[in-house]
């Protein structure tokens, strides 16, 4: 009986220490989960800010491109397929209408260019803004 009680107490001590170890590990796992959730939240906020900024850059980029209706007005047999790889693109098109006199007649020239600036995405889009206005 005494031996059995001794063995039972020893087993109970082992179980208690294992229980404490498991609880400690669970607490550490919860702390790690909370840290990961906080980092995830920070990344989501930063991602949202960056996406909003790039979307605004897209609005700027679209503002410098000639409107498709203007292109269609002067180049009736044309179409524009403009599909950026990302939200913004390094590709752009440009159009300029120039008038000049040749003798008594006034002539109109339509200059149109399609360009691809070095790089794609945001860096190329920023270069395209500069290139389209120079």
The average pLDDT score comes to 87
Largest β sheet strand count, sense and barrel closure:
2 strands, antiparallel
What is the helix/strand order?
A: HHEEH
Number of E-state strands: 2
Question: End-to-end distance, in Å?
Answer: 98 Å
Number of helices: 3
Share in β-strands: 15-25%
**What's the alpha carbon Rg, rounded to whole Å?**
34 Å
Uncertain ranges: none
| Class by alpha and beta content | alpha+beta
Sequence of strands across the biggest β-sheet: 1-2
Assign an overall shape: rod-shaped
> Can you give the helix content as a percent range?
55-70%
- How many distinct folded domains? 1
Report on the architecture of this protein.
The protein is an alpha+beta fold and 134 residues long. The protein contains 3 helices and 2 strands; from the N terminus they run ααββα. The chain has a two-stranded antiparallel sheet. Strand 1 and strand 2 form a beta hairpin. Helix 1 (2-64) runs parallel beside helix 3 (121-132). The model has no long low-confidence stretch (mean pLDDT 87).
């Amino acid at each position: 009986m005494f031996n059995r009680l001794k063995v039972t107490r020893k087993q109970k001590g082992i179980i208690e220490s294992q229980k404490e170890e498991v609880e400690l590990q669970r607490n550490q796992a919860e702390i790690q989960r909370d840290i990961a959730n906080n980092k995830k939240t920070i990344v989501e906020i930063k991602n949202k800010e960056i996406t909003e900024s790039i979307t605004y850059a897209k609005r700027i980029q679209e503002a410098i491109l000639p409107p498709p209706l203007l292109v269609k007005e002067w180049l009736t047999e044309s179409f524009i397929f403009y599909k950026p790889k990302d939200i913004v693109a390094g590709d752009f098109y440009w159009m300029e209408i120039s008038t000049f006199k040749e003798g008594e007649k006034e002539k109109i020239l339509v200059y149109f260019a399609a360009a691809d600036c070095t790089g794609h995405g945001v860096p190329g889009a920023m270069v395209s803004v500069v290139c389209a206005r120079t």
